[in-house]
Specification:
This protein has 317 residues and is α/β, with parallel strands linked by helices. Helix content is 25%, strand content 15%. It is built from seven helices and eight strands. The strands form two sheets. The chain has a six-stranded mixed beta sheet, with helices on both faces. A two-stranded antiparallel sheet has the order 1-2. Helix 4 crosses helix 5. It is globular, with a radius of gyration of 24 Å.
Length: 317
């Protein structure tokens, strides 16, 4: 990536007004043989010419014209005319999006907007606990052979105990239909008697979206991103959203699935670039806690917590 392109991308990560200046640190100062020094026969970059009073030595000021952000994936919709990138209707459950503004009250001929909005507003908070499956047999050729290892079963026990110790009234456990997730769920559920279990193919492991930056040790074919990505995105849309307007009390739900799925869901829920999902790492049996408020705001309470496990029980396989 060119130096000017790197500066442009750095600027894209900052939120600001109509005029944006980004101070970007340079590895070596001009005049000391670094990459920022103009090469013989080439013109000095326009962005490198700044008044001495405008920035400390070793810093460059990037004018807004130089910052051109790469286009976001097609399914990401940015709200127009706002100073923020947060989309309050990210789950398509914003009250204004649920009512028909053209429909008139038959008796008065006027729209009872306030009452309709109140009827569509969520009242409860959803607590979503995303659990990564425990360690499993990597030598298994088929999914049915990739069962939990003895250590993996210990990890699931520890995770189950941790969830039970929270003293919460869990509503349900939704889990991936893959063997390692199903076995992890069975062990965890012993510590949460009476909580119903639901299996789904949507939460199966896969390649959600091509990561940025790319990695050399894991390069699925493009068709795998195309197929898995649609399914994992469907899982996000189906399970991750604010509470239904009919829900009166806060809910606590457990999802037992896989590292790639959890990392992608976290990025999407927080409206971070989903291509950054592979920059996170999750331990086996770890707990990630998302909170979705009635107004659609999302908070990440914990990410990949395994502090309840002894150090010798922690793995990431």
């Amino acid at each position: 990536m060119s130096f000017r392109r790197a500066l442009a991308l750095a600027a894209c990560g900052l939120a600001g007004g109509s005029v944006l200046f980004s101070a970007v640190a340079v590895g070596k100062q001009p005049g000391r043989g670094g990459d920022a020094e103009p090469r013989p026969g080439s013109a000095a970059p326009a962005t490198a010419v700044t008044p001495a009073s405008a920035a400390p030595p070793g810093l460059l000021l990037l004018p807004p014209a130089a910052a051109s952000c790469p286009p976001a994936p097609g399914w990401i919709e940015r709200p127009a005319g706002t100073g923020s990138y947060w989309d309050s209707n990210w789950d398509r459950r914003e009250p204004l999006a649920l009512i028909n503004l053209k429909k008139k009250n038959e008796e008065t001929g006027e729209e009872e907007l306030a009452s309709r909005l109140d009827h569509c507003k969520a009242k409860a908070t959803r607590h979503i606990f995303l659990i990564r499956h425990s360690q499993y047999n990597l030598d298994g050729r088929a999914d049915k052979d990739r069962t939990l290892t003895p250590l993996g079963r210990e990890q699931a026990e520890l995770t189950g105990r941790r969830l039970a110790s929270l003293g919460l009234k869990f509503d349900q456990i939704i889990h991936s239909s893959m063997t390692r997730a199903t076995e992890t769920t069975e062990i965890i559920s012993k510590h949460l008697p009476g909580v119903k279990k639901i299996s789904t193919d949507l939460l199966r492991e896969g390649a959600p979206i091509e990561p940025d930056p790319p990695v050399s040790h894991w390069k699925p074919e493009a068709v795998q991103y195309y197929e898995d990505g649609a399914r994992i995105e469907a899982a996000f849309r189906n399970f991750i959203h604010r509470a239904d307007a009919k829900q009166e009390e806060d809910s606590y739900e457990i999802f037992v699935c896989h590292a790639n799925v959890i990392r992608y869901i976290v990025c999407r829920a927080l409206q971070f670039p989903p291509e950054g999902w592979l920059r996170m790492s999750l331990n086996n049996g770890s707990i990630t806690h998302l909170v979705i408020r009635p107004n659609g705001r999302v908070a990440l309470r914990t990410l990949g917590d395994t502090g309840f496990m002894p150090p010798d029980k922690i793995t990431r396989t």
